[in-house]
Every structure is written in C-alpha cells, then in structure tokens.
C-alpha cells in the first residue's frame, strides 16, 4: 500500500516570517480579481487596501498575471498599466473557453504583447473538454496548435490549461515538438 505524505504549513508563520527567496504567485488573473471586487487602480493600491487582512505574506514578491481573454490583448494601455508595476509580470494566451474569439486580429495583438519585456510566458492555453466549455474540440485544437507555433517563434514557456483532455493535449504537444 502506497502512503502519501500530507503537506501542511502554519498559516500564521507563512504570513509573518521573512523567507529568502520570497514567494511569487505564478498564476493569477488580476483582471478577473479587480473586476470581481470592483477595484479601480493599481495593484499596489489593491495590496495596500488589504493590509491587516492576512492576505499577502511578508515574503510575497509579486505575481504573473495571466491575460487569457483574446479581446483584452488589444487593450494595450490597460495591460501595460499592470506591467508598469515592479512586482507584476504577464502571460498572454487564449484560454480554450474563448477559442471562438481568437482570430487574426487577436493573434496580432497577442504577438505584440509577447514582445513586452515583462511578458514571461504564453498562456493560459490548451484544451478543455469538460461540460464547462461549449467550444468544439476541433476549434480548441486549432487554436491550441496556432498558439504553440507562436510560443516556439517567440521562445516562450507555456502555461497550459488541460481539463478532461489529457491524451489530446499530450499528443498535440508532442506533434508541436514540446515533448
């Protein structure tokens, strides 16, 4: 019988002790977060309004914001405001839930965003065959393949979203020579 080690941590200690190196949130959606809580302003302002609420550990050093809705790629000044902050980096890519919104124009804006010095990855891209997604498998695969070619062109690492599509995702990654 295989035994699993249950990982645990002391939350208070995590929040209050200084660690070196610190912590980076490698997958967040600042745009979704700001919209959900009706925040208008900078990420620094958002963080300062949450002080004392035990939200950010002392050793928190920043985040990589994932911009995955294709229609936001062309809002250049909007996402550049996020990236103007010292502790925010970005990943851009069309999430499979938005596959039908990824056209030639959006691809052009994606290419532009990938050239920004603080864009560190292409994603969140992939396949989602769950009941949460109403786009055809074929369309998702086409959009996924297009973005994999772009990632190779720009030499960017990937942020993959794969739900109920493991075999197809692996096969497409192999086909594109990522695996």
UniProtKB/TrEMBL annotation:
Keyword Zinc: no
Record key words, sorted: Hydrolase
PROSITE patterns to which the protein is assigned, alphabetical: TATD_1, TATD_2
Domain of life: Eukaryota
PANTHER family in the record: DEOXYRIBONUCLEASE TATDN2-RELATED (PTHR46363)
Family membership noted in the UniProt record: Belongs to the metallo-dependent hydrolases superfamily. TatD-type hydrolase family.
Protein name as it appears in the record: Putative deoxyribonuclease TATDN2
Species name: Penaeus vannamei (Whiteleg shrimp)
């Amino acid at each position: 019988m295989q035994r699993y080690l249950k990982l645990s941590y002391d939350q208070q200690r995590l929040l209050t002790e200084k660690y070196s190196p610190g912590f980076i949130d490698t997958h967040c959606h600042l745009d979704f977060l700001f919209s959900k809580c009706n925040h208008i302003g900078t990420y620094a302002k958002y963080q300062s309004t949450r002080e004392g609420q035990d939200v950010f550990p002392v050793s928190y050093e920043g985040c990589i914001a994932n911009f995955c809705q294709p229609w936001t790629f062309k809002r250049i000044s909007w996402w550049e405001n996020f990236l103007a902050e010292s502790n925010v980096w970005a990943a851009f890519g069309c999430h499979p839930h938005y596959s039908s919104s990824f056209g030639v124009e959006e691809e052009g804006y994606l290419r532009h965003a990938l050239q920004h010095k603080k864009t560190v990855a292409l994603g969140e891209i992939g396949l989602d065959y769950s009941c949460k997604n109403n786009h055809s498998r074929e369309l998702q695969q086409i959009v996924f393949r297009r973005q994999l070619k772009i990632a190779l062109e720009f030499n960017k690492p990937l942020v993959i979203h794969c739900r109920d599509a493991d075999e197809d995702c692996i096969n497409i990654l192999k086909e594109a020579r990522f695996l």
